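This part of the workshop introduces the protein records we will be handling. Getting from the letters to the tokens is the skill we practise here. An example says more than a description, so a record of this kind follows:
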Amino acid sequence: MPFVRSNPDDESARGEVGSGAPPFPGDADAVDWSDPDLVKVHYDVTAWDYEQRAELAETLAERNVPHQWLSENGVDELIVPEVAEAFTDAIFAELEAELGPFPILLGADEEGVDFPLDEWTDADLDTLRTAIVEAEIPHRWTGRTVRVAADAADTVDDLVEAIEAGEVASADGEGAPDGALHDLFAFADELARDPDDEPARERLLELVPQLAVDAPPYGLAVRAWATIVNHAEALAGALTQGAEPSAVERAAGELRAVCRPYV
């Protein structure tokens, strides 16, 4: 969640508001934004695109949540009074589930590693942007240079190398079915625990024919995906050939192991 800060003089506990929260019960127009005692909460939405901001603004209006927008020194913030913080958090959670993941902005004073990409095409930059967002890596773009959190530098370095080698699926290409990677991991986990799990068997056998080694999920390197597909096909073969439960368990465990780093 892109929470920035609240008034440090007031640390009162927030209420709990679940997904699908009702409209804010107060009068949004009654908030006196000039009141020096008004405690405000700031949410950094600098990295959000136009459609995401528009959806946020529309939802805030529909829920009657009092708010303001602030753009200053290259930072865009949503501001709400503290009494509306729990309602706003619930809205962010809903939008995250519907539109997310959202970009996580690396703070200007946070340690990071720069990746200058002046020679890259716009298409490759878009691929990297999406992959970094989906991996939930804190980052900040300045022109064609991206600064990422220091502890994620190795991951981004691998992404950069894979994109330069043409080993990452493009945004407009035909990739794997939606959710295929997570489904493979889940089915493999179920079969590793119980090789006779009939629903898992059926769903795996239905999914595997839809996979291709050269059509990975968006943002995943081809070589990594090819390894996963090969193990999925091996497990499917064990199932269709009536292999012993121990062989199914072993094949499922191997598929689960190769999927685990990416889910």
The first strand starts at residue 3 and ends at 6.
